[in-house]
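Deliverable D2.4 — example input (structure tokens):
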């Protein structure tokens, strides 16, 4: 094989992202023998248009629930919709056999929301703007026996 070209891009093709993700997933399967990676989404739909207006996306893999992106429209915040979405994601993680969940938020986003729902902070890394941090959380989904 000749020397590969290596490029940096802010516009990768969906096929490129899939190849990288699938390659890592296959490596994990080869080493662990576990093939259970699945996407997860809990969607908030507009009742009239049925269009998605918010929700959470993530995945489950090897006993972990990862929550990646969580958005609730401003008009719905404080109405319990976010709590319901989070609880549904956690319940689906449990249904899939996940023991633990992980996520990160930004200090100006929702750390108190997660604390209120039993999530425990396990780290923070400063980011921009100054005085802001990425805050990492975890939650046990299945109580220890």
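Example output (designed residues):
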């Amino acid at each position: 094989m000749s020397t590969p070209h290596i490029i940096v891009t802010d516009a990768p093709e969906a096929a490129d992202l899939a190849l990288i993700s699938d390659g890592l997933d296959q490596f994990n399967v080869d080493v662990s023998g576990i093939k259970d990676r699945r996407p997860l989404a809990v969607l908030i739909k507009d009742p009239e248009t049925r269009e998605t207006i918010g929700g959470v996306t993530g995945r489950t893999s090897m006993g972990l629930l990862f929550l990646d992106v969580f958005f609730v429209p401003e008009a719905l915040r404080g109405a319990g919709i976010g709590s319901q979405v989070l609880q549904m994601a956690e319940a689906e993680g449990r249904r899939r056999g996940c023991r633990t969940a992980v996520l990160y938020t930004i200090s100006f986003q929702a750390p108190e929301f997660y604390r209120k729902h039993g999530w425990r902070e396990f780290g923070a890394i400063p980011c921009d703007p100054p005085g802001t941090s990425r805050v990492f959380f975890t939650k046990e989904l299945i109580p220890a026996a």
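Residues 37-140 form a domain with the Aminopeptidase fold (CATH 3.40.630.30).
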